[in-house]
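Anyone up for a design puzzle?
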């Protein structure tokens, strides 16, 4: 593939002055809340070219530096502009094993697009939408990763977890001639990409296509296999040359609210996973939790998914991150009569994507800012959330919690309360027996004492993603899986 070389100023280099930012079409609100399809459409080739040409090619690509995988964004935009779709797809995959997924779920407004040079005054280049176009269209036209020059090494690596870190690691190992075997307790690949992120943000056919691509690259998936039950880590360490653990951060942050054990209260992930299963198995049109296949483990919960029907119910979601937005928007589609999001700070302080907050508002979600939950009200089941008003700390520091407004307690009526305060790693005993160095908040420590990046205290065991970082973005897990594969390859060469 021939990358475009640096270019001097020429007619059209300032196209952003003439062409406004145009995003792909968006499903009307009254249509999108009735189903589970992605709400954003796709560029055709002329639209992708037009929007790619808005790139200033500024010479100091802040967009690339802000991207956790450091995508070569200006150059694949240039390739799209030149009509070289397959070259653009190849270049996108050089840094990102899952570009079509990141193009959909990354908070571009806080990352690449937020750092775009023309963002102030002219609106950023639609980087995420073009990235999605590149890969979707290239796959449609038959492009696949070229592994014809890969030389098999005869080495085999087990990957625990088929989430973004594990899939990214598998992709890179395959490109290095290392046989990758991915084990996951769920019935389909993707982890929370499949079961946690709702399909109106990431349709599950996208994951199915990526699975087919990875299998064609030689990756083998062992699904419905829970390490610690069907297989042990010791068995994997004995059978394979190395093991990578990308087990995620599934344990919900416990706010220890009085009343949170009442019926009608559920953490975010079990709620999302249960619905993910309904959609995946084609039963979402029923909109009933009772119709869902309630099999298999549920993140951060018991082995049985919660039976929670929100039709006609008043739903209150506590928490203002992207997971909270996933919950409120899912509740709307499941037929809730009223959906409210409660957040203890102001809207500008919300940690999630601004786009997701806008989408939630468009879909009828009510937001109550500057409200701190104190307790879940109710006797036999949840009936409301007792909150108190807050205001910004007089100190003004972001890490200082908001101040309580005396005498401002009220109760927000609720039939269903969803806890979306965030997540933390909770690695299993079978993992920490070998990866026995952890932070106080239970994150695995890797790369210590002269070890390779992502290598644990057990030399054959590597780890990355949320189990190491704590709950973070999909794209940071992708970066970890990619880079861990490089460390595994280097370690195998040493041996």
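Challenge accepted. My sequence:
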């Amino acid at each position: 593939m021939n990358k475009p070389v640096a270019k001097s100023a020429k007619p059209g280099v300032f196209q952003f002055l003439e062409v406004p930012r145009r995003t792909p079409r968006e499903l009307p609100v009254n249509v999108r809340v009735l189903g589970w399809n992605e709400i954003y459409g796709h560029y055709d080739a002329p639209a992708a070219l037009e929007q790619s040409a808005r790139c200033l090619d500024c010479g100091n690509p802040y967009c690339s530096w802000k991207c956790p995988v450091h995508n070569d964004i200006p150059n694949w935009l240039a390739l799209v502009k030149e009509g070289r779709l397959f070259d653009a797809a190849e270049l996108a995959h050089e840094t990102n094993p899952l570009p079509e997924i990141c193009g959909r779920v990354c908070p571009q407004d806080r990352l690449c697009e937020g750092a775009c040079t023309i963002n102030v005054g002219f609106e950023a280049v639609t980087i995420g939408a073009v990235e999605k176009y590149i890969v979707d269209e290239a796959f449609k036209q038959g492009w696949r990763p070229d592994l014809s020059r890969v030389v098999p090494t005869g080495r085999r690596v087990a990957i625990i977890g088929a989430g973004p870190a594990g899939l990214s690691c598998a992709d890179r190992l395959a490109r290095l001639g290392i046989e990758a075997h991915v084990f996951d307790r769920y019935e389909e690949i993707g982890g929370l990409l499949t079961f946690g992120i709702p399909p109106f943000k990431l349709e599950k056919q996208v994951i199915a296509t990526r699975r087919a691509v990875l299998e064609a690259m030689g990756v083998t998936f062992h699904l419905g296999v829970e390490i610690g039950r069907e297989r042990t880590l010791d068995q994997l360490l004995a059978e394979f040359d190395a093991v990578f653990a990308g087990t995620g951060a599934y344990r919900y942050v416990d706010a220890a609210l009085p009343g949170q054990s009442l019926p009608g209260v559920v953490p975010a992930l079990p709620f999302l996973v249960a619905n993910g299963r309904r959609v995946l198995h084609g039963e979402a049109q029923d909109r009933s939790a009772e119709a869902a296949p309630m099999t298999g483990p549920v993140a951060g919960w018991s082995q049985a998914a919660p039976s929670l029907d929100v039709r006609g119910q008043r739903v209150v979601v506590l928490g203002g991150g992207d997971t909270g937005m996933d919950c409120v928007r899912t509740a709307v589609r499941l037929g809730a009569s009223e959906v409210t999001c409660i957040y203890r700070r102001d809207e500008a302080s919300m940690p999630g994507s601004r786009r997701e907050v806008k989408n939630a508002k468009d879909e009828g979600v009510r937001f109550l800012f500057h409200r701190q939950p104190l307790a879940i009200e109710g006797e036999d089941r949840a009936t409301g959330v007792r909150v108190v008003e807050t205001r910004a700390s007089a100190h003004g520091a972001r890490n200082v919690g908001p101040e309580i407004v005396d005498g401002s307690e009220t109760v927000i009526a609720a039939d269903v309360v969803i806890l979306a305060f965030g997540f933390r790693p909770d690695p299993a005993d079978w993992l920490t027996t070998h990866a026995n160095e952890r932070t106080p908040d239970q994150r695995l420590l890797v790369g210590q004492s002269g070890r390779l990046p992502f290598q644990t205290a057990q030399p054959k065991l590597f780890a990355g993603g949320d189990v190491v970082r704590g709950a973070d973005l999909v794209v940071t897990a992708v970066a970890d899986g990619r880079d861990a594969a490089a460390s595994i390859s280097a370690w195998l060469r040493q041996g």
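A detail worth pointing out: The chain is about 35% helix and 15% strand.
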